[in-house]
Amino acid sequence: MKNKIQKFSKGDFQLIRPDVIFDETNLVLIIGEGEVYRGSFTMRANNEGRIRGLVYSSSFRVHFKDQGFEGNPARVEFTYDGRGLRPGHVEAGKFTVVCTGGEFELAFTAIIEKPYVMTTYGKVQSTDDFRKLAIKDFSEAGRLFRSKEFYEILKYENERTFYLYDNMRKWSLGEQAMEEFMVGIKQKECIFLTLQGEGMLFEDLTESTKGTLTLMKNTWGYMPIHIETVGDFIRVSRPEISTEDFVGNAHEIEYVVRAEKLHGGRNYGALKFVTPYETLTYEVEVLQNQEYDEDHRMPELLLAQIIKEYVGYVAGRVTLEHWVDSAVEKMVALRKLDPLNEVYQLMLGNIYLLGGKTEEAKWILENYNYNRFAIGKDPLTNCYYLYLTAKIRGDVNYEERVLDEVGKTYMRHQDSWWLLYMILNLDNRYKNPYKRLEVLEQQFEYGIHAVMFYLEAYLCYQEKPTLLKKLGTFEIQVLNFATKYRMMTKELALYISNFASQQKKYSDNLFRILERIYKMYEEPMILNTICTLLIKGNKTAKKYFSWYQKAVDSDLKIAQLYEYYMMTIDEDSAHGPLPKSLVLYFMHGNALDYKKAAYLYASLVIHEEQAGDLYLNYREQMVAFTWEQLEKRHITESLRTLYKRFCREDEMTAERMEAMRDICYSYEVRTKVRGMKCVLVIEKDGSVRQRIPYDTKNGAIIYLYDKESRIVWESVEGRHYTDSIPYETKRLFYEPRFVDMCRKYAASTGFWNQEPEKEKPDYEKIQAKGIDSFEDKDVFLVCSRRIREENYTEDDFLSYLAFEMFRRGQYDKVTLTYLAEYYCGAIGDMKRLWKVLKQYGVPSYKVSERIITQMVFSETLYEEEHIFEDYYLSDNVYFRLKQAYLAYVTREYIVYGRSLEKCVFEIIANECDQKEDLPDVCKIALLKYYSDKEYTGELEDVLHQVLREMCEKQLVFPYYMNYKEEWLREVQLYNKVMAAYRCKPGGKVRLYYKMKQKDREELGYRAEAMMPVYENLYVKQFVLYNDESVNYYFQESGNGEMITTDKKTLKTDKERVFAGKYQMLNAMTDMDSDAERSKAMLEFEEEEQMADQIFKIY
Question: Where does the DUF5717 domain start and stop, copy by copy (predicted)?
């Protein structure tokens, strides 16, 4: 380094600058835990130059065998001390190489290798390696998952990963657990199945048939699959499979449709594939021996329409004439469908009879073929015929005989409602509604549900409502029929309502009857009965709210009405204030559930203006209720309103603040996956302090204090699920005011500080564990204190520590003074240090000297002028370095056109004024810089002297011509013109020119080989008369190419007033008179002789 600076100081720039290349530009150091790594890097030059220089490291753990190096190639050996570092530690640093070829940065990455387990497929030392192993061999991955070695590997993984595995070891380590673990740490996606098609249809199977379907999975991994069959006719050979049975991503399922289990018509079945995450259904349908007749249900439909219209007639909604016409039309259609059906013929006669058309009825019966002794004749049909004839004749004796015949038949067929109907209409005893109802109730025991049966029973109640003395199954069915067909009279409706209010138990059927009655007659009595019945049944579902609301709006006095109003109200859809009567009712206390009580109070708060004095009367109990619910950690939307209104910071106790913090971090979690038993939360420290039972309706409320907390689901089967379960979280209470309140409280008391107390650093701990193990401000304090304690004694690690803190923005005058004294590193780093030193007024000349030294040595100079000025103005300037710097930068200025700050030329001028020894290039640059600028009187003498000196040394350049005329006359440049050229390094230059005098011009160009004035700068001087000019161009050769410049012309500067013999000769050429020219020639000769006598040549 000194040798190079010494040569530069003398203006010798002939040294070959090596073109440096590195074998590697980014080093990766893989270091075992607790080991010292030994490594090296090599650089070489493409040309003949040898590489000399120094190397610095950004890491204090790097030590060099020799910090300096020389050679081509040059090898630098180093060590990296990895002792004390945990596996997984990564340090990205750099080597800074300052050499004769320049300054270079070589990046390195030091990685402390993690422990690993060797498997059949290679190393496994991370979860990523484990995933790759699981893809290749799931069973071997499972064995590793259960081993303690895997537990040790995870200690150096992300803490959330480690704590998840730590807890899963307590739950299960089976294949399903491993699957959940990998999904939870984002190493794979959850497995889902898809079916190729939605189902299969079979038709008319005569024997058992095999079917197949393809089950697809989306990714690799393990999942058990249970196959359920719906329908006895479907059978599978293996009800339990897993994803291990798949070939690739597909598995073919075989099932058998058993023909012996099929019935005629449509057979519905399905295959259900039940996984821990979903249930897929594949439908199987078999159409067996099915012949479809579009009209097969038409008779049933027409008969039902006839009866329904008859009920409408009895209820008074349809006239008898209309019903008869419609019924006859439908019976004609029925007889066309089945002409031989005798019952249809008799029914038509019955319709005519009911409609008062006796003649038509007689005609029908006369055409009926009656033979009571015919073989195969239906006795019920015969009885029906006899019944109709008896009604037509009206003969009492005949009716008694028919009644006797029907009665005998009924004794054999007591379950026949048809026969009973005939008896009821023939026997006068049953004209009494009591008797009639009694026999109907007995018949009901046979399971009779015919419409006409219920109609007969209802007519008894309609005739005499007092017959309704109980509400058994029979009575409920009859009333249900009556309300369904809207036959109920108002008198009977009120009677039923009164009777129902006396019932001790709730009945869904009775409520349905009363609901229909209320739609027919909106009477307060009926509404009262409905609400009373609902309260007896403890009906609190939202669908019943409308009844309680109607009762409250009607101001009905019903016990517990307001409680049930509050229990059934939908808080999300309800708007406006609550009824005033309800608010007054609860003024002196309530036994409502906390959610409903909160809604009551929240309504008062929201509608405070409308509430008026009621709000003030309630305020005290609302405040007490709010604090009570806060301490119980309850949270709803209504409670949120109360907390915001009544919770004040000055009334907060430690217990209340603890509860408020829990509420601020409370979340509601829900999932659509069935079979979940509870929700667990793995906290940031790995513990499980929350195990909340899961309710399908209301979800579960958990507390998530940290974003690192993990939610785990536990199913009823005992399985645990991580991120494979889709779920939703909803923050229940987030108010910045309360969150800030909790933070302030925590900061003042130290509560809830989940972070362990950080270790305080000292110098030895920092040296062992590294800077990043502690807070920057704490490390800086240790560093600054250590410098003072050691009285600014140099120490390698202390220097590293001080500069690393400086790089991170942590410094004071102590550390800056220390760095100014000792730090030496990369040029960029030292320049940043120099700027801060100047700002803080710390002496910086040593840093300036190191910067300039390395810049000159490496020939890497940029934005350094003021740094050199700072160094120059100090009292400790090394003259060789000063000269070398000035020579190098002025050479760059002259030869390569680099721009320089003014301060550099002021320093050169000062050196010239002090008669200091400087290379000529510095003086040439000084003359060039000031050739087109103004300068002071003091500087004028310096420039004049330098100009004379350079001209004496024949170092002449065109820009000299810009100086004063008298200076140019003195150095004999006043009568000259110059042509200049700058060529590439190593090139050769020839000048081609020809003279021209007035109209005479030389025919050819003269060629002249040029010699450089300085390095690659060439100058040619010409002396021209006024009427002369020179045409010229330059030609450069080198590196196999030829460059020719454009042609240019040089002339004398006619504006300059020249003195001397050449000017006298120029004047003679311009004279027109011979006498005047002769006189001038005589004067010229006299001056020549006088000069020879006065000026002697030594």
Answer: 1-775, 795-1095
Give residue 1057's pLDDT: 46
The pLDDT of residue 755 is 52
What is the spatial distance between Cα 39 and Cα 715, in angstroms, rounded to a whole number? Answer: 55
pLDDT in tens, 197-216: 889 999 888 899 999 999 99
1088: number of Cβ within 10 Å: 11
Residue bearing tokens 């009823």: 716
The number of residues in the chain equals 1098
Q: Rounded to an integer, what distance in angstroms lies between the CA atom of residue 302 and that of residue 297?
A: 9
- Between CA 1008 and CA 988 the distance in angstroms is 11
Task: State the alpha helices, DSSP H only, in 49-158.
Answer: 127-136, 138-146, 148-153
Q: pLDDT-derived band of residue 291, with 50, 70 and 90 as boundaries? A: low
Which of 114, 123, 111, 112 lies closest to 28, judged by CA?
111
pLDDT tens digits, 92-104: 999 999 998 899 9
CATH number for region 193-288: 2.60.40.2310
Identity of residue 221: G
Q: Report the phi/psi class of residue 987: left, alpha or beta, with left for phi > 0 and alpha for psi in -120 to 50.
A: beta
Residue 862: the pLDDT is 82
- Under a CB-based contact definition with an 8 Å cutoff, are residues 993 and 1032 in contact? yes
DSSP-assigned letter for residue 506: -
Give CA–CA dist 97/68, Å, rounded.
10
Token output for 1094: 């006065």
Dihedral of the alpha carbons of 813, 814, 817, 823, in degrees to the nearest 10: -120
> Is the preceding peptide bond at 87 cis, omega within 30 degrees of 0?
no
Q: Determine the Cα angle at 850 with ends 846 and 852, to 5°.
A: 115
Angle (CA) 693-699-700 rounded to 5° is 45
Q: Judge if pTM exceeds 0.70.
A: no
Q: Which amino acid is at 731?
A: R
Element (H, E) at 676: strand 676-682
CA–CA dist 298, 337 (Å, integer): 9
Q: Which among 492, 517, 491, 487 has a CA at the least distance from the CA of 312? A: 487
The stretch 770-788 carries a mean pLDDT of 89
The CATH fold assigned to 648-749 is Immunoglobulin-like (2.60.40)
Report the pLDDT value the prediction gives residue 1012, as an integer from 0 to 100.
92
Asked if 451 and 441 count as a contact pair (C-beta separation under 8 A), the reply is no
Fold (CATH) for 976-1051? Immunoglobulin-like (2.60.40)
Tokens describing residue 413: 């067929």
Going by C-alpha positions, the residue among 964, 926, 974 that lies closest to residue 946 is 926
| DSSP conformational letter for 1014 | B
Mean pLDDT of 490-509: 91
Residue 860, SS3 per DSSP: coil
pLDDT tens for 621-637 read: 999 999 999 999 999 99
Are residues 734 and 640 in contact, defined by beta-carbon separation less than 8 angstroms?
Answer: no
291's CB contacts (< 8 A; 6+ apart) are none
Chain segment 800-854, per-residue pLDDT in tens: 999 999 999 999 999 999 999 999 999 999 999 999 999 999 999 899 998 888 8
The answer to whether the beta carbons of residues 268 and 285 sit under 8 Å apart is: yes
User: Are both 2-112 and 648-749 of the same fold?
Assistant: yes
| Side-chain-facing half-sphere of 796: CA atoms under 13 Å | 10
Alpha helices, DSSP H only, in 690-735? none
Q: Is 798 helix (H, G, I), strand (E, B) or coil?
A: helix
- How does pLDDT run across 53-63, given as a tens digit for each residue? 999 999 989 99
Does 549 score more than 80 pLDDT? yes
Which CATH fold would you assign to the domain 2-112? Immunoglobulin-like (2.60.40)
Per-residue pLDDT at 1033: 94
For the chain, first and last CA: distance in Å?
46
Q: For the chain, what are the domain ranges?
A: 2-112, 117-184, 193-288, 648-749, 763-908+915-924, 976-1051, 1060-1098
